[in-house]
């Protein structure tokens, strides 16, 4: 299904509709197939559709937790691995492979995704001739977590049925615990996720609690929030979600990557909003480095020439060292902080591909 966007080309969207007719989830195709071989073939999806901008978590359904993809997304193993790592038991790929690519790759790709994720694969496939230059392969298929084809249609209009056994998913994963054997000390997958923030949320920040209304970005492992006592306009903080992470060396590789990638995104936002190309990015790692809250956090402060009345721009570090200790310093109201957070949230909603 294509959904028209007010700002340009439509999105190729997969809707998950439940038995009562309610839309439970939607997914926008992430990968677009663009191929232009002069004199041979030209198929440019980017000329008539836009790519999706966000990863979506698997959805709970009556038959199991479902991860969603569309057609060309099947070729990118990272998306399937993301869904498996986020709890998927079933992956679904409605598709329209050409006859040429379908004959060569359709079954191989479906079985590969099933084996490497240990999920059921449910893959409905369009079939038939579209025009003189394009025919779709068909062969809708269901593959089990061991890689066996348990249901398949032909190239004709057809219908097939399969039983999905979640106990079998558990058995395959128990007998082949490959995800427990991954060498995360040598390699890892980073997924650029944006999670929903509720104003009623409370985030742990050392001995403090940060109200959800003061947060403006939440990723898989970290969150960004406005400052109670900013040194300069735009001074914000980023911290890991997990409790008990006092030092930078306490972070695992995934959280470390997430922390600094989110830092980069937030810095870009602040520099655009405050019209500067400079920022101080600082981690006070430990008591003698000026850390007053025993939880890893990154300060991001947009900078401009003379922002402390002239003089050495490095005086920011002495101000950072001492500003938390000044308990009598005027603190901002929750209302003011929430308004700033809302402003930043809206910026990210309008700039999803940052």
What does it look like?
With 354 residues, this protein is an alpha+beta fold. It has 2 domains: 2-180, Carbon-nitrogen hydrolase (Nitrilase/N-carbamoyl-D-aminoacid amidohydrolase); 202-350, HIT family, subunit A (2-Layer Sandwich), CATH 3.30.428. 24% of the residues lie in helices and 26% in strands. The chain has 6 helices and 20 strands. The protein has a 6-stranded mixed beta sheet with strand order 6-7-8-9-12-13, covered by helices on one side. The chain has a 5-stranded antiparallel beta sheet with strand order 16-17-18-20-19. β6 (59-61) and β7 (64-68) form a beta hairpin. The radius of gyration is 25 Å and the shape is elongated. 29% of the residues are buried. The model has no long low-confidence stretch (mean pLDDT 93).
Characteristics of this structure?
elongated; HIT family, subunit A; Nit1/2_C-N_Hydrolase; 2 domains; Nitrilase/N-carbamoyl-D-aminoacid amidohydrolase; alpha+beta; C-N_Hydrolase_sf; bis(5'-adenosyl)-triphosphatase activity; hydrolase; five-stranded antiparallel β-sheet; 354 residues
Secondary structure: elements and pairs:
Layout (H helix, E strand, L loop, with lengths): L1 E4 L2 E10 L5 E6 L5 E4 L3 E4 L14 E3 L2 E5 L8 H9 L4 E3 L6 H19 L2 E4 L3 E5 L2 E4 L3 E3 L5 E4 L13 H10 L26 E4 L2 E4 L3 E4 L3 E5 L9 E5 L12 H21 L4 E6 L14 E6 L11 H9 L10 H17 L4
Parallel strand pairs: 7-8, 8-9
Antiparallel strand pairs: 1-2, 2-3, 4-5, 6-7, 9-12, 10-11, 12-13, 14-15, 16-17, 17-18, 18-20, 19-20
């Amino acid at each position: 299904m294509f959904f028209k966007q007010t700002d340009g080309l439509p999105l190729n969207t997969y809707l998950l509709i439940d038995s009562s007719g309610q839309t439970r989830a939607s997914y926008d195709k992430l990968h677009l197939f663009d191929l232009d071989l002069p004199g041979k073939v030209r198929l440019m999806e980017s000329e008539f559709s836009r790519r999706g901008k966000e990863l979506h978590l698997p959805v709970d359904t009556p038959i199991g937790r479902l991860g969603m993809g569309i057609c060309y997304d099947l070729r990118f193993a990272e998306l399937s691995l993301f869904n498996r790592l986020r709890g998927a038991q079933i992956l679904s790929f409605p598709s329209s492979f050409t006859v040429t690519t379908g004959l060569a790759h359709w079954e191989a790709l479906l079985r590969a995704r099933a084996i490497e994720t240990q999920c059921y694969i449910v893959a409905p496939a369009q079939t038939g001739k579209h025009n003189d230059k394009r025919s779709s392969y068909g062969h809708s298929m269901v593959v089990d977590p061991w890689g066996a084809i348990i249901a398949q249609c032909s190239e004709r209009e057809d219908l097939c049925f399969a039983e999905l056994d979640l106990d079998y998913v558990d058995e395959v994963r128990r007998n082949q615990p490959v995800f427990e054997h991954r060498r995360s000390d040598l390699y890892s997958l980073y997924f650029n996720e944006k999670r929903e923030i509720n104003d009623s949320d409370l985030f742990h920040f050392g001995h403090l609690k940060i109200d959800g209304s003061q947060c403006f970005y939440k990723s898989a492992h970290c969150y960004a929030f406005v400052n109670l006592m900013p040194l300069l306009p735009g001074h914000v903080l980023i911290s890991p979600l997990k409790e008990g992470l006092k030092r930078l060396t306490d972070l695992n590789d995934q959280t470390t990557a997430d922390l600094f990638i989110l830092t980069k995104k937030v810095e870009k936002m602040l520099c655009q909003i405050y019209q500067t190309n400079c920022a101080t990015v600082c981690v006070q790692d430990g008591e003698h480095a000026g850390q007053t809250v025993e939880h890893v956090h990154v300060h991001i402060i947009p900078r401009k020439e003379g922002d402390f009345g002239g003089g050495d721009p490095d005086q920011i570090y002495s101000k950072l060292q001492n500003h938390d200790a000044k308990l009598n310093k005027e603190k901002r109201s929750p209302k003011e902080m929430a308004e700033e957070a809302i402003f930043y949230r809206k910026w990210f909603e309008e700039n999803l591909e940052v």
